[in-house]
Amino acid sequence: MKITDHVFLVTGGGSGLGAASAALLASRGAKVVIADLNESEPKPDGARFVKADVTDEASMQAAVDLCISAFGALHGLVNCAGVAPGERVVGRNGPHALASFERAVKINLIGTFNAIRLAAAKMSAQPAEASGERGVIVNTSSVAATDGQIGQAAYAASKAGVNGMTLPIARELAKFGIRVVTIAPGIFDTPMLRGMSEEIRASLGAQVPFPPRLGRPEEYAALMAHIVENEVLNGEVIRLDGAIRMTAK
Question: 90: how many CB neighbours lie within 10 A of its CB?
Answer without folding.
Answer: 8
